[in-house]
Design goal:
Helix content is 36%, strand content 21%. It is an alpha+beta fold. It has 2 domains: 13-50 and 146-221, D-Maltodextrin-Binding Protein, domain 2, CATH 3.40.190.10; 58-144, 3-Layer(aba) Sandwich (D-Maltodextrin-Binding Protein, domain 2), CATH 3.40.190. Helix 2 (79-93) packs across helix 4 (136-144). The longest helix is centred in the C-terminal third of the chain and has 16 residues, at 206-221. The protein starts with 12 loop residues before the first helix and ends in a 16-residue tail after the last helix.
Length: 237
């Protein structure tokens, strides 16, 4: 196990990505859209946060159908989800809304033709409120036929094989504790056992690596990274 070897920090995804870019972290479970912005990157684990169809916790919510949406409020917590949304809007849904940055609470602003991208716990809660819900994992699957990778364990430096082996074992250990995690963290808005076992896919297998490579090429071509990175040839090893 990794006890004593890692100084663990917890924050929301886009903050962790910023810390990795600033070299204040060596490794982070980060939104994959940060990868094109890194001078050097390594995916160091066989585990990720992904889905193969519905993901449940990354959705566009509205009170109007897609073709009536005029403005979308963007969740500040994950740039990958924003990039995914914009790809779907341009290439699949083919609508033309305006976007608005957010901070803090913004779910209450969903009204009329104003929709919102919401991730995480707030998305699981919003599912019981909004008239329309568009699950981005499911929409990506319909668009590409591929699974999706929201976050991966990425480092800005090389690590030796012993560390990577131990790191993978630590990730695997957690996956065998899902029942205990659910019991210790009761959550009324959504069945967490279903969420962790039916919606989230953790293994970074060949199909997910293919999907990740495709997504990175898409965001580069559409200049959807935070710094408008130029198009490059991304290869996920």
């Amino acid at each position: 196990m990794m006890a004593g070897k890692v100084d663990l920090r917890i924050d929301y995804p886009s903050k962790i990505a910023s810390m990795l870019l600033e070299n204040t972290l060596d490794v982070g479970l980060v939104p994959v859209s940060v990868i094109p912005e890194m001078k050097e990157h390594y995916i160091i684990s066989d585990y990720c946060i992904g889905c193969d169809g519905e993901v449940a916790s990354v959705c566009l919510f509205s009170e109007a159908p897609l073709d009536k949406i005029e403005k979308i409020l963007l969740d500040y917590q994950s740039h990958t989800s924003i990039a995914l949304l914009k790809i779907l809007i341009k290439n699949y849904w083919k609508i033309n809304p305006v976007f608005e940055e957010t901070s803090g609470e913004y779910q209450s602003k969903i009204s009329g033709t104003t929709a919102a991208l919401i991730i995480g716990d707030r998305a699981l809660e919003q599912r019981k409120i909004s008239s329309y819900m568009f699950d981005l994992g499911l929409e990506w699957k319909r668009f590409t036929g591929l699974p999706f990778v929201f976050a991966a364990w990425v480092s800005n430096k090389k690590f030796d094989e012993d560390f990577i082996t131990s790191f993978n074992k630590s990730n695997s250990f957690g996956l065998h504790k899902i029942d205990q995690i659910v019991t210790d963290n009761p959550y009324a808005p959504f069945d967490l056992k279903d969420y962790y076992t039916k919606y989230i896919r953790y293994h970074l297998d060949a199909e997910k690596r293919k999907a990740l490579e495709f997504f990175l090429k898409k965001i580069s071509a559409q200049h959807l990274t935070r710094d408008n990175a130029k198009e490059s040839n991304f290869k996920i090893s």
